[in-house]
Amino acid sequence: EAQVTQNPRYLITVTGKKLTVTCSQNMNHEYMSWYRQDPGLGLRQIYYSMNVEVTDKGDVPEGYKVSRKEKRNFPLILESPSPNQTSLYFCASSFTGGINGYTFGSGTRLTVV
Amino acid sequence: AQSVTQLGSHVSVSEGALVLLRCNYSSSVPPYLFWYVQYPNQGLQLLLKYTTGATLVKGINGFEAEFKKSETSFHLTKPSAHMSDAAEYFCAVSEDKAAGNKLTFGGGTRVLVKP
Asked: Closest approach of chain B CAs to the CA of A79, in angstroms?
């Protein structure tokens, strides 16, 4: 089944403790992207990648890192999480960028206390 | 820069009634437009999209949307609401290939369907 898989689905952590949210797609998509969803703000792009080893900042990149060493994986790294990073995170992938729409993962609900 | 405005963060409709969700966008170039639906505790699912061609676009689950360039709108409709339509709906625009065809989302509209 074609899908984007994120792990974990739920995570509660403490301020300053490094964490990684994994994202993997099995559709051989070039484009991958991370979004965070906050009430009333919709989804905002954190980082995106147009291919292996090609990443760039989105609208809200502060406090996040990403890497794209393989085409299928696009992990999101929070080096020192803070409470304002409490949010619902989505990974998404696409063949042709946004033209035909992205396939989204099921989301990771992160709480930083 | 592109932006998307969804009028109404919450909409309540009766089962069988018309569903109308409003979306207006700003874009400096002809945009690609999307509607996504998010059911509780799930990711976003593509409902329909407009890229080029016919301005009335049909999607899944009986939804359709019309691209009106003069009004910079892409409103979503469904003639008869069903209980299973209760979800949050997001309008999105994409125009900038250099930025990975970033999707810019509206704030979302949560639909409640009353029996």
From this structure: 24
